[in-house]
Amino acid sequence: MTFDTLDAMLNWLAQYRPMYYHYIALDARLTGIRSPSFEESPSGHDGRPLDARIIDMIQDKEELEDKMEEIRLTIAMVKDIRYLSYSILWEKFVMFKTLEEIALMHHYSVDHVKHELYPRAKLDLFRLVQTPHQTTPEQML
Q1: SS3 state of residue 39
Q2: Could you give phi then psi for residue 2, rounded to 5 degrees?
Q3: How far apart are CA 120 and CA 97, in angstroms?
Q4: Angle subtended by helix axes 99-106 and 83-93, to nearest 10
Q5: 17: which residues sit within 8 A by CB, 6+ positions away?
Q6: Rounded to whole angstroms, how far apart are CA atoms 11 and 2?
Q7: What are the phi and psi torsion angles at 43 (to 5°)?
Q8: Confidence bin at 34 (pLDDT 50/70/90)
Q9: pLDDT value at position 135?
Q10: What does the pLDDT average to over 80-102?
Q11: What's the predicted TM-score (pTM) here?
């Protein structure tokens, strides 16, 4: 995955949260489904057969799983380069922590996280996804 700008990468990473909540909602709907009724034509509110709606929900859930996994794997790419960058990005985009919470968890000042560590983490990942085959850990430092 490559991006034209840092903002494009951040927007893509930020999609994780709504995808996660959509995934949870789909999972709840799927696990809350009861045994099928044996009426002549079981159908949902949209007139489609219930089985078709369930299949659509399962497919949507699988697509979300794939997209979410891609984001997690992309963030994990920076793990071997600079673990702190990985940790900050993981906590922000996958665990939904604020920069203030991240600063507290890592025993740094909020200003240091906001103005030093988080910007560095974003750039570390951006550089890595732009040239994944050319970047070595030594080049990132």
Answers
A1: coil
A2: -120, 155
A3: 17
A4: 140
A5: 93, 96
A6: 13
A7: -150, 160
A8: low
A9: 47
A10: 97
A11: 0.80
